[in-house]
Specification:
The chain is mostly helical. Helices cover about 40% and strands about 5% of the residues. The longest helix is centred in the first third of the chain and has 52 residues.
Length: about 150
Amino acid sequence: MHLAATRDAGFTLIEIMAVVLIIGLLSTLVGLAIFPQIDKSRVNTARAQIKMLDAALETYRMDNAKFPNSEQGLEALINPPSEARNYQPGGYLRERRIPDDPWGNAYHYESPGQHNKHSYDLWSYGADGTAGGEGVDADIGNWVDGADEG
């Protein structure tokens, strides 16, 4: 009688495998729902960072009467170029560093821009890190409204 009670007290290998399989299926479903939201968040973060850099560049222009040229680039926001007339002490970015885009790549800056001929272009190449693309791989720039992108 003691032997029969011991055998009924545990789970069989089949029961444990069934539970593991169910947990795996649930994790897959949750992952499929969450990963597109992560991509969308990165795109929104890139747009927000571009707007923040736009604001810093506008402040630089107000102080120095022009935007940094392509050679000076975004680095001019944290290190004063030699011809900067009224450079703010401490630069134009609170953290004193140029942020990378959400995919770990540098933002690109060109002045005068191809899209914004009288100012500058500021952009990220998106998730794939190369020009062009669609969805999360699309370029994100200060010339694009972004309201219709996803």
